[in-house]
Amino acid sequence: MRVEFVDLKAQYRTLQAEMDAAIAGVVENTQFVGGPQVQSFEQEFAELIGSHECISCANGTDSLYIILKMLGIGPGDEVITAANSWISSSETITQAGAKPVFADVDPRYYTMDPQDVAAKITPQTRAIMPVHLYGQACDMDALKILCQDHGLHLIEDCAQAHLAEHKGQRVGTFGQAGSFSFYPGKNLGAYGDAGGIVTSQAELGRDCRMYARHGALVKHDHQMEGINSRMDGIQAAVLRVKMPHLEEWTLRRIENARAYDRLLEGVPEVTAPAVRSDSRHVYHLYVIRASRRDELQKFLGSKGIQTGLHYPCPLPLLPCYRYMGHTPDDFPVASQLGKEILSLPMFAELSQGEIEYVAACIREFYAG
User: Fold this and answer.
1) 152, 184, 319, 326: which could form a disulfide with 189 (CB 3.0–4.6 Å)?
2) Three-state secondary structure along 139-202?
């Protein structure tokens, strides 16, 4: 048996007729950048998340950068983000002219540790950027209090957390703005790069939209120098076909995670992902902690099972941040996780038989 890490072809087959018609409609009407598909997507996604506005852009990385710039964050400022994330979370801080400051993570939930965040706040801190990693919401109560007490902006990185919730509230709506990625492998994915910003602050939304469109809301009326970060019409059409199915797909991911939990119970070498109370984990990734991780990954590969590492090296220990002089001891939890985490196949169309096969192979490895 072969088990894909993510099978986008299986998703396409379930939507093929509708998807093909939507893409053909964009081509027929030559609405390649912007247009009614993009406008409709923005309205529908904002409503889905529970935000006043969605500003579409070219990719999720741009969405973080645009938020930072439009909040006035720049040289001399510091922004605290998580030590275990994709580099977009930190490189955009540097691109805005500020300094990324890394906080360690919770050993149970793998998200930003509010106590370590509090210890990293200085007079130069302007914002906290929590990352809702793997589809699990951060401890937003604690982080909101820190922002309120210190007068900081709260910027949510929701790239892996479409429809994730904390105490019934969807991520992306807790702070000044939320950033989403619609990269193809995401829970809501386009057929290329795409991203979005959600905010309920009208002035910030206007500024973000202006900056992403060369600094103009009306052509040739440039109020500022901006960048070119616009969503393609085809990507908006693809996302609009998928969006009505997102809740159903999310429930399937949760069911798949529960199946993994049951089948891996009793394997002492494996720790299944925990779910924060009063939260909804949407399982963009199903990440276990495993002893002899590298050997296990190689064994699963020999059995036709694709896996991933998210992420093998904490951000502050990457070569590009060597100038900061960090060591693994500065981030003990993130450093240990980097040696143990393994992402198993996870997507809505994953079958019970495939999950059982993955779990059986894991049990076989440790029984040997």
Assistant:
1) 184
2) CHHHHHHHHHHHCCEEEEECCCCCCCEECCEECCCCCCEEEEECCCCCCCCCCCCCEEEEECCH
What mean pLDDT is predicted for residues 10-32?
97
Give the DSSP H/E element, type plus range, for residue 81: strand 78-82
Q: 205 is in which domain, residue-wise?
A: 8-244
pLDDT digits (tens, 9 = 90+) for 55-77: 999 999 999 999 999 999 999 99
> At which residue do the structure tokens 């299986």 appear?
10
Which of 211, 244, 277 is the endpoint of a domain? 244
Copy the structure tokens of residue 187: 């829970």
Mean pLDDT for all residues in the chain: 98
State how far Cα 231 lies from the chain centre.
18
Domain identity same for 86 and 166: yes
Residue 78 near residue 223, CB atoms below 8 Å? no
Residues above pLDDT 70, as percent of the chain: 100
Q: How confident is the model at residue 52 (pLDDT cuts 50, 70, 90)?
A: very high
| Contact status, residue 235 vs residue 190, Cβ threshold 8 Å | yes
Question: Does 2 map to a domain?
Answer: no
Instruction: Name the phi and psi angles at 305, rounded to 5.
Output: -105, 120
Cβ partners under 8 Å of residue 207, min gap 6: 70
Which residues touch 101 (CB under 8 Å, ≥6 apart)?
Answer: 78, 79, 80, 81, 120, 122, 125
Is the CB of residue 130 less than 8 Å from the CB of residue 176? no
Specify the amino acid at residue 89.
S
Q: CA 163 to CA 187: how far, in whole Å?
A: 9
Q: How many Å apart are CA 43 and CA 38, to the nearest integer?
A: 9
The structure's pTM equals 0.98
The strand pairing partners of 56, in sequence order, are: 196
Report the number of distinct structural domains present in the chain.
2
Closest-CA residue to 157 (of 231, 252, 62): 62
pLDDT for res 200 = 98
CA–CA distance, 343 with 287 (Å, rounded to integer): 4
